[in-house]
Input
Amino acid sequence: MRVLFLGDMVGRSGRTAVWQRLPGLIRDFRLDFVVVNGENAAGGFGITEEIFRATLNAGADVVTTGNHVWDQREALVFAPHEERFLRPANFPAGAPGRGSGLYTARNGARVLVSNIMGRIFMVPDLDDPFRCVEEQLAACPLGEQADAAIIDFHAEATSEKMCFAHFVDGRVSAVIGTHTHQPTADHQILNGGTAYISDAGMCGDYDSSLGMDKEEPLNRFLTKVPRGRFEAATGPATLCGVGLDISERTGLAEAIAPLRLGPRLEETIPAFWR
Amino acid sequence: MRVLFLGDMVGRSGRTAVWQRLPGLIRDFRLDFVVVNGENAAGGFGITEEIFRATLNAGADVVTTGNHVWDQREALVFAPHEERFLRPANFPAGAPGRGSGLYTARNGARVLVSNIMGRIFMVPDLDDPFRCVEEQLAACPLGEQADAAIIDFHAEATSEKMCFAHFVDGRVSAVIGTHTHQPTADHQILNGGTAYISDAGMCGDYDSSLGMDKEEPLNRFLTKVPRGRFEAATGPATLCGVGLDISERTGLAEAIAPLRLGPRLEETIPAFWR
Amino acid sequence: MRVLFLGDMVGRSGRTAVWQRLPGLIRDFRLDFVVVNGENAAGGFGITEEIFRATLNAGADVVTTGNHVWDQREALVFAPHEERFLRPANFPAGAPGRGSGLYTARNGARVLVSNIMGRIFMVPDLDDPFRCVEEQLAACPLGEQADAAIIDFHAEATSEKMCFAHFVDGRVSAVIGTHTHQPTADHQILNGGTAYISDAGMCGDYDSSLGMDKEEPLNRFLTKVPRGRFEAATGPATLCGVGLDISERTGLAEAIAPLRLGPRLEETIPAFWR
Amino acid sequence: MRVLFLGDMVGRSGRTAVWQRLPGLIRDFRLDFVVVNGENAAGGFGITEEIFRATLNAGADVVTTGNHVWDQREALVFAPHEERFLRPANFPAGAPGRGSGLYTARNGARVLVSNIMGRIFMVPDLDDPFRCVEEQLAACPLGEQADAAIIDFHAEATSEKMCFAHFVDGRVSAVIGTHTHQPTADHQILNGGTAYISDAGMCGDYDSSLGMDKEEPLNRFLTKVPRGRFEAATGPATLCGVGLDISERTGLAEAIAPLRLGPRLEETIPAFWR
Ligand SMILES: [Fe+2]
Ligand SMILES: [Fe+2]
Ligand SMILES: [Fe+2]
Ligand SMILES: [Fe+2]
Ligand SMILES: [Fe+2]
Ligand SMILES: [Fe+2]
Ligand SMILES: [Fe+2]
Ligand SMILES: [Fe+2]
Output
């Protein structure tokens, strides 16, 4: 089964590019399931209900988030009603919305998607991501309730990302890192059959600082004195993510490869999709 | 001119792979200049004089480091005498050793190499990397004393890496990130002509946590209680780095592409070297 | 009932002063219960079994710890067998030893003592201290199983300390902060009857950096280059802690005042003990 | 000569209490010089020009700040014109305003006041505070251009505060810590004659979280989900600071003692002022 995961959409540039390209990708490559991280879709900070819906309309099955999930306060309102909207599962019990869900892919497979946040260098400091995933997999094991399991692990430190992936290796289809906004090239299938990449990269303008206009971030580094607000960069976006091929028999990964489409990075499409 | 930059060698597995492969790479691709980051070469922690020399013997022109530079105390002794050994330049004045140097490449070009450390999430907290590079470029501008300028920017946060690169864009040949030990796929030539990649990746065993045996790091994440020491992983290493093509006329970059050689990641060699 | 809490003993100087003075304090002021934080008792790093026993012999009813608890590896061995040794309760389930206990004071009162670690700026990142204390108080509520409840909240940030104390205000006898090694003067009885102080201070040499010889810490701040090890300071120690008067009827605090004995700080003994 | 230093005024409650009590304190105790930290005076976040002026009118000679200095954007406008307004001196060169000044006390003494920020756990990451103070003392040594020298060291970690004080011991009259908003009881005169306290405490409502209404900070600790804004607490403020007696001959400290006035903490006035 073919899955596409797109990293953090940043601002108008990023979300527009996703909305424009995603329907064609789904059609051309007969994708069964699509996950998009939307934590920076609204000007770089959070996501609105309108953007969330438009992303579903473009073909996403699930929208995941991260530390920026509540930057737009309206997310607190729509999160509880939207099955396809995920915030990190390791928020303390009682947080609005949900951290994981079981969805039906276009090929009929039941796909567990979970959004979990790391703790190293991250704010806010959520509950233990390792225990969180352990509980989720106990409740919904791959091969029983779920035919595939995809985790958006939203974290900064590569050590935490690697150890998290080793911890669930053989028990989920894929661990896809997000948050750093730069795609990594370390995609591999781990020993137990779980696909892994440290970071999917962002969908945004790569002539920027993390998709944000670089002027004010650079000013802060140089002077430590704020001069203005952080604004999303407005140049054309490059889409970054990964394509997965997941065994319909075992739920484990048969292939993982990056997808990059746009003006700034080396373009690539998973060869096993062709 | 052809430059190869190899990311953090980790442990015996990583350094041995570099020593074995580097002479062939230099010969086969007629490389003019080679930089290798060696901060984790001795069991993951620092570098010894013997390892440093063996790395030069294998063909490295310069060995750079980072936050782990003094983990092997003997580095404090040999650093001051070794022109080709760099520690981060933004250590306070008076630190042992040097942070940059001007070297002659095999094509006769004078190459400025600078090793600078970021500050976000990094220990120890060194001097301002932006001011540091500003001073270095004032003292040794590209196109005057230097025919090429390569910066190993050893840092964690992608925002700091991107802003640093934009800051020196057009004034150096390349900004190569190190420290996260995972290669990124965001290599590009910035608007001003500077080649950039967020992280070169490591030269080490990618079935690991940052090149270290994954058992104890994973134990720490799970239990928070130390059970043993951190040891370098012993599986076969994958070499990660970037190839650069630098204009002999302008000193700016004409091409940047990843190099990955080994069993775990997708292998690639810069196409423009063939 | 009269309780004495002594802050982090640091090194030989600190522990020796505690051992020498504690018996006299217990006798002279007819103390019912004594808690001592011992996380830095062994040269500044952790605690040995011998030091732990000697501290009990000097009159401590319970020895608490903090982030340094496992610095001496032997603590992993004796912790599980020692009822009167506490490590932070919010270590993940399965950690060696215990995080709280119910003890009988010399006046017959049943005293719950709990050792909990904060998360802001702290390593390792343990479980949520707020949820941890909630569970403890549910299992052993003040006025039912316990006649008094004392929490050693080992944390860095004053915001977390204050919020933690407000959270349990009226439900425990006292929240005593430790870890910063400097006594605060903000002791007060909160609105609900819980005694509070941000930090008890350390029992150690105050002509130092946190009880450690100041030469190497200062060297690190100045040069960022290690020159030697951190050693405990050897000058005479000042004892720092707080005295509590806890109602035998309600278990809430009737008085809190600092105790400081030694050569460097303004000496004081709780007036309500005389 | 008699100096009063008052810690961070927080919100209306804190600043009003300072304005009401300060004139009487100056008159009753014949104070020669007064420094007030104002970084949280405007609702907890920064300071306005009007508040700054009212604080001078109440008798402050200098208003210092810290990490919150630019929270009110108007501070960027008035800082450059106000000699008696200090922001941390270790902002990069070119920052608005000034970090130190030489002022004439009511007894005619020339008093150097310097505001310097620590780096451990602090944002933004400013220049090296140790080098900063070294340069200031080289330019304006105690006993030559200055008859007294008072440093507001705005920092989180007690290790950095202690080491900073030891570094300048004998070269300044006093190092007064600010930022943690809880007064410490570790005031002492160091071996070289410099008065020291880790933190002066705040001037604000101590039934709070750092002077802020405790509801939202506590909500964030419990749920990690924002519910509202941080607002200054509105209960009556307790003034916290220290009194200094500085030798007019040597510029070194002869005495340091806390001042605490208000409803929540143990009240005290320096005995040597009576
Ligand atoms: Fe993001
Ligand atoms: Fe994020
Ligand atoms: Fe490294
Ligand atoms: Fe590093
Ligand atoms: Fe301690
Ligand atoms: Fe501690
Ligand atoms: Fe403050
Ligand atoms: Fe502050």
